[in-house]
UniProtKB/TrEMBL annotation:
Gene Ontology cellular component list: nucleus
Location(s) in or outside the cell: Nucleus
Protein name: Sister chromatid cohesion protein Pds5
Biological source species: Helianthus annuus
InterPro entries per the UniProt record, alphabetical: Pds5 (IPR039776)
Length: 167
């Protein structure tokens, strides 16, 4: 998608004129036809664009929870490294980690983080670790489903890849 490439070049917190120029794309991305497209790769491409717009407009939230669920849903596909959209999914995860947009996962009750496995690339672990740390710090309650894999990994290795700075 050309839009993804162009959005990735836009600096964070741009001038008002740039935000105004982005508005047509921002509206086009949330049309039902795109977010509910039958092709998973199209959904991931749309989520990537929404992720970039979220990065650009941070700390503001340009989309509502329903639209942000599309970003969160892409993390579930991280379990399939052979997928054509794996690299794009990992990039969305990295962007969410960097701009702290992962705090929305608390509101969305996201459990897609469970899809990370030992075989994932090292580039996924730091992003996932940052997200998990932030979610844990911001949570009033930490879901048992999130703690079980963390504690199992700690017990197994006496450390958590990507979370070593906690110890």
């Amino acid at each position: 998608m050309k839009v993804e490439k162009l959005l990735s070049k836009v600096d964070r917190s741009p001038k008002r004129s740039m935000i105004d120029a982005l508005r047509p794309s921002m509206r086009a991305l949330i049309k039902d036809g795109l977010s509910k497209h039958s092709d998973v790769d199209v959904k991931v491409a749309v989520a990537s664009c929404i992720s970039e717009i979220t990065r650009i407009t941070a700390p503001g939230a340009p989309y509502d929870d329903n639209q942000m669920r599309l970003i969160v849903s892409t993390f579930e596909g991280l379990a399939d490294q052979s997928s054509r959209s794996y690299a794009k999914r990992a990039s969305i995860l990295e962007t969410a980690s960097k701009v702290r947009s992962c705090v929305i996962m608390l509101d969305l009750e996201c459990d897609a983080l469970k899809s990370v496995r030992d075989y994932h690339l090292d580039s996924v672990f730091p992003s996932m670790g940052s997200i998990m740390v932030l979610v844990i710090e911001e949570s009033e309650e930490i879901p048992v489903e999130m703690l079980k894999p963390l504690l199992a990994h700690v017990k197994k290795d006496n450390t958590v890849r990507g979370l070593r700075h906690l110890y």
